[in-house]
Amino acid sequence: MNKIALMVVVAFSACWALPTLAGHHKVADILVDMPYVRALVPGQTMTAAFFRVANNGAQNCVLTAATSAYAEKIEFHTHQYMDGMMKMRPVEAVELPAGSSQAFKPGGLHLMLFGVKQGDNASAEITLITDKCGELSFLAPIKSIKSMPAEAMHH
21 Cβ partners below 8 Å, 6+ apart? Predict the structure, then answer.
């Protein structure tokens, strides 16, 4: 009987932890899904972070900042086609209307992390700050560019 009880506890614990293991992070009505940080290129101190953020609530939100002990400074950035070239530009804030989601992805909107310390970190804790929907902290695994598909390497 003890083995059955243990199996039930283990099964319940695994189901409860599954969203965290799958990369889902939620506070109130804001959800961050499948975040990751691109590993530093040797000799560099900046990198990028990617994820999808959703506002499942009825209130519009604006992402106003991001912070992390992993980096001295974080900015929202996007790519724009200007004068025949793709250029990366900072963005002051990111609107997240009620019921919408926004992809932070290579070649588009993303987080730029500046002043990253070299080290053997397996993940980085990042906090997104909103105007009126609270703050959401999440762990983003650090992934080597060598292990990513070609389409994920564009920046």
Answer: none
Please check whether residue 46 is in contact with residue 113, taking contact to mean a CB–CB distance below 8 angstroms.
yes
DSSP code for 152: G
Domain ranges of the chain: 24-152
Q: What per-residue string of b and e applies to 88-105 under the rule 16 or more CB within 10 Å gives b?
A: eeeeeebebeeeeebebe
Q: Quote the Cα angle for 63-111-155, to 5°.
A: 140
This prediction's pTM = 0.77
Q: Are 88 and 102 in contact (CB under 8 A)?
A: no
- SS3 of 8, please? helix
Q: With H, G, I as helix, E, B as strand and everything else as coil, classify residue 19.
A: helix
Helices (H), the chain: 2-21
Which of these, 36, 69, 65, lies nearest to 50 by C-alpha position? 36
Q: What is the pLDDT of residues 1-20, one digit of tens each?
A: 455 544 433 343 333 343 34
Question: What's 24-152's CATH class?
Answer: mainly beta
